[in-house]
Amino acid sequence: xxxxxxxxxxxxxxxxxxxxxxxxxxxxxxxxxxxxxxxxxxxxxxxxxxxxxxxxxxxxxxxxxxxxxxxxxxxxxxxxxxxxxxxxxxxxxxxxxxxxxxxxxxxxxxxxxxxxxxxxxxxxxxxxxxxxxxxxxxxxxxxxxxxxxxxxxxxxxxxxxxxxxxxxxxxxxxxxxxxxxxxxx
Length: 185
Hints:
The chain has six helices and seven strands, in the order E-H-E-H-E-H-E-H-E-H-E-E-H.
């Protein structure tokens, strides 16, 4: 089912999304990869605040390429989400509601998604040039020294993704594989 959602992502919005739904996201999304996640975790351990309000936020695991003239960002494809798994339960406990990436998540992340009524969404890998067309604004929030791994704040319009893990723990990667394999019998 196609659903249009806006950020911030509320608990009610997350709970309305089901594994397999196609979503189109409009609003503010933060971009952060493993180096930024590590730094944010270290900041929390030192009693510092995060560089943005994580409550009800969406984080896109993406490494942007340089913007071409007249564009806010270059190619903007997803990166492998499992690299953030060791940090994710903490951020979910702090109120993060949606993550966008590609690939499987650990059991601990799935449990934290369910516990915190959040969702994991997949963007299509290899389609970074097309996905960048949905990004209408981009600005660096912090950690500029990390280059492509700096935290960005992007504004998106109808950014396409698929609900992989819903707030109830249903996992499209598992159910789709089971459905495919059962069709082979």
